[in-house]
Amino acid sequence: MVEALITIRPARLSDCDDIAEVHDAAWRDAYRGIIPGKELERMISRRGPQWWRQAIQRSSRLLVLDFDDSIGGYASYGRNRVPRLPYTGEIFELYLAPEFQGIGFGRRLFRAVRRDLAEHGLHSTLVWALADNERALGFYRHLGGSVLHQAEERFGSETRERVAFGFN
Fold this sequence. Notes:
The chain contains five helices and seven strands, in the order E-H-H-H-E-E-E-H-E-H-E-E. By secondary structure, it is α+β, with helices and mostly antiparallel strands.
């Protein structure tokens, strides 16, 4: 019998290379055909291991899904950055490597983030998704999110609609 240890834990400096790899693969998988190609590659290239190292050193809230000593996903989160929306916490990013999607790991990571936010007094959560990212919209709806707000985001010379989901 094969057994794998799956944990969700705070990111460590030794995770930087793996988080960068997950970020690259997950963003290409999620946004190819949604964010213009040149802009997508530019955004991805800014998030190498050094970027993640600095985030961890700044004590950014960053959890990883550790699957048998390899990183399968990550989530970054903190206080809501949009004061006009009445939610205290925000999930900035929640991504899984493509091979870890669709088997419940995203839901586990989401719940771990919500639990940590609540432990720090942030009991309601906001998360944004691009309106053309059907997988993300379905994921957040399935978790019980309510659509709160829509806005535009610029990618180079093009704009895309984004949707805010709220969780109480």
